[in-house]
Amino acid sequence: MISILRSTSVASSAYLARRAAIVRSSTAAQRRSESTLVVAEPTTDSSLAPSTLAAITAASKLHSGPISLLTFTPASAVPSSVTSVIEANTTSGVGNSNKLAETVTNAVVAANEKHGYSHIVAAGTKFGANYLGRAGAQLGVSPVSDVVEVLSGDTFVRPLYAGNALAKVISKDSPLTLISIRPTAFEKAEATGESANTESLDVPANELTEWLLESVSKSERPDLGSASVVVSGGRGMKNGENFALLEALADKLKGAVGASRAAVDAGFVPNDLQVGQTGKVVAPDLYIAVGISGAIQHLSGMKDSKTIVAINKDGDAPIFQVADFGLVADLFDAVPELTEKLQ
Q1: Per-residue pLDDT in tens (0 to 9) along the chain, 343 residues
Q2: Could you write out the DSSP letters of every residue in 49-102?
C-alpha cells in the first residue's frame, strides 16, 4: 500500500511537471503571437492624424510585439514603433468610401483574418466610434471604449460618469482584444519617416451603402481637436454674432474656436465646434473658457488641458474650480481688452 502511494505520488509529480511545461510553452507561444493592429484615420494629405499617433503610443504599451498600421490614405512617415503598414484597397470604386463604417469594418476584419492579431486599437474619435461597434460584432468581441490608460494587455482604465470616476476594466475576450483610446490621454508618437514593411490589402466590396458627399466647414484656423490653443464660448456670449470677439482673440493666439453645448443648442455656432462629452474632447496647452459656467459634460471634454483660463462674471461658476487662472469680469469688456493687449 505504501509503495502504491509512492508510485502514485511520483506519477502525479511527473504529470504536474508535464502540465507546467505545457503551460510555460503555451504562455511563450502566446507572447510570440502578440501583435497589434492600429487603424489610422484618413487624412487629406500623407501625414498621420494626431489621434492616430496617440493610438500608436497606446499600442506600444500593450506588449512588446509588432505593431501594424492599417491605412486608407498613403502615409509618408510613420513612427519607428510601427513595423508594418497595411494599405487598404477598396474594390467598390466609390469615392471616399473608406470613411464608411461598412468599408472600414471590412478592412479590419480582412486584416485580422490574414494576420491574427491579439489586439486592435482605434482612436476614440467620431471616425473610430462610427465603426467600432460594428467591427466588434463581426469579430465576436466586446470593445473596451474610451481607454485613458493601459495597465497591461488586458487591463485598462476608462472614465465613467462624465469623467468623475475612473474604472479599471479587465477584458475577458480571447484571443482578440478590441479597444478605443482617448487621443488626449496619450502622447503623440513621433513620425520619424523611418521605413516600414508595406503590403496591400484588398478589401471586400461594400454593397450596402454608398458614399455621396461630405460637408465640412473650412477655416484658416487650426483644427479644434489638435490646436494648441482653444478659445471657447458659452451661453454668456448671448448670440452668434458675439463669437466674433472670440475669433479675433483666437486669431491673435493662432488658436481654434470652440463652444459649449449650451451655445450650440442655442444656435450660436455649428455643432462641429462643440467641446464636451457629446462633442470633441480637447487637451490644448491653453484653454480659454469665456462665458461658460462649467457643466460636468463640458468639463469632461477639456479638463485635461495643460492650462485653463476662465472668464465669467459669476464668481461662483463651477468653471473656476478647474481653472488655473480665473477672471471675474464682464466678458464684453475683458475679451476686447485682452485682444488689444496682444497686438
Answers
A1: 343 333 334 445 554 454 444 444 344 344 438 999 999 998 888 889 999 999 999 999 999 999 999 999 888 889 999 999 999 987 655 555 778 899 999 999 999 999 999 999 999 998 999 999 999 999 999 999 999 999 999 999 999 887 889 999 999 987 999 999 999 999 999 988 766 889 999 888 777 788 887 777 677 888 898 899 999 999 999 999 999 999 999 999 999 999 999 999 999 999 999 999 889 999 999 999 999 999 999 999 999 899 999 999 999 999 999 999 999 999 999 999 999 999 7
A2: PHHHHHHHHHHHTT-SS-EEEEESS--S-EETT--EEEEEEESS--TTGGGSHH
Report in angstroms the alpha-carbon separations of 221 from 44, 227, 247, 275: 16, 9, 9, 16
Report d(CA 289, CA 320) in Å as an integer: 10
* Partner residues linked to 38 by β-bridges: 69, 121
Question: Residue 292: helix, strand or coil by DSSP?
Answer: coil
pTM value? 0.80
